[in-house]
């Protein structure tokens, strides 16, 4: 909401001051504003929702279909913290909210839910218009530089002024895609207010592979491949998902989701032929060589359905010339092909940084925030929402759902507090 008309001076004291105009902050602000309280939202960038506009490649994967209870494991070991928020404001509630505002939704075959227009802008416009209707004051281009506790509430300082807040909501997001305004400021604010911040790192981020042999295949993707993660020789995790080959490593939802558990030096073992083990593939190749010995090795592998460019690269890696007939394939080369296709091993050089990570792992410690209210356990009337918390979800709409659900639950508590404070004592 960049309309200067709504930037009236207003009182310097607000019932609610929200720091951060992403989905969590905007949703909380409009809900609090609807209860006729004075609400100010301070946004660092010249306009709100910059990251929201990038979400889902600009199409905004808002949430996911299915029972909301099944969302919990999609946030790793921290999912149980979100249970009260998700159960109070479910994926169905979120979809219904936008549909009630005239925006139809569409579900893709994998269960991801998007606005039917496939425009993140439409989601943002509804949030801004509802903030406007609810009388929320939005000050863009006004980063909060510091926060502190004062008598009767909190003080948020910007270069333009000081704002006293009965309730302070920190919804500054994580530290990924810093150009969108999310640069980790909320972590410093939380520390300043005495909160512990769990170590942060990029998550939902691509993986760079040492000596990557498939760099010429950048852009090729594979559906639902089993990916096994090994550390110091031991399998530590297993995941199945889509994989995308990049110029220097691996990405795609399967790898991104696993990235929160990966560290440099780990080994990723991928089977490019889900459902076919090494022995079955070995039998297939030897069988083809016996029956169709004059066929090229490459032709014998066409039935696997793998892209031709990829098969050529695997044969080259296995030391097999493109014109080699199947009958002349040496055993060692056959074994190399089998191993590349059923258990291809990649050594992780590094993970993508904040500039390319979709979310941030770590954040405000969940131990000091009440999951039933999102209120700080250290300061009454202080709230943390969305990605600033030590929560990160899988790809598929789980991060936006967390932002909206935490905002909704906090808004209920803020409303209750404010109503109580209005009652005659
Ligand atoms: C490329 C990309 C694609 C994504 N796609 C999806 C998707 O399709 N589905 C999904 O579920 N998730 C997606 N995500 C993740 C999702 O966008 C975030 O998890 C979500 O936006 C977090 O919401 P938030 O409100 O907590 O924080 P943010 O959206 O990060 O908003 C925080 C806001 O706070 C402001 N701010 C920060 N510091 C200050 C300060 N000092 N003073 C004032 N304001 C401040 C920032 O400018 C920003 O506007 C994607 C992320 C990226 C980067």
Describe the protein's architecture and organization.
This protein has 2 domains: 11-202 and 354-422, 3-Layer(bba) Sandwich (FAD/NAD(P)-binding domain); 206-352, Beta Barrel (Elongation Factor Tu (Ef-tu), domain 3). The protein has helices at residues 23-34, 50-54, 79-88, 91-100, 120-133, 185-192, 253-258, 278-291, 297-301, 308-317, 331-342, 398-422, and strands at 13-19, 39-42, 63-64, 105-107, 112-115, 137-139, 144-150, 153-158, 162-170, 197-203, 207-209, 221-231, 234-245, 249-251, 267-270, 344-351, 359-364, 382-384. It is of the alpha+beta class. Helix 1 packs parallel to helix 12 and helix 3 (79-88) packs across helix 12. The model is unreliable at 1-11 (pLDDT under 50). The protein contains 12 helices and 18 strands. Helix content is 31%, strand content 24%. The structure holds flavin-adenine dinucleotide. Flavin-adenine dinucleotide binds at residues 19-25, 42-45, 48, 50-52, 54-56, 60-61, 143-144, 171-173, 176-177, 181-182, 185, 358-359, 386-387, 397-400, 403. Flavin-adenine dinucleotide (FAD) binds next to helix 1, helix 2 and helix 12.
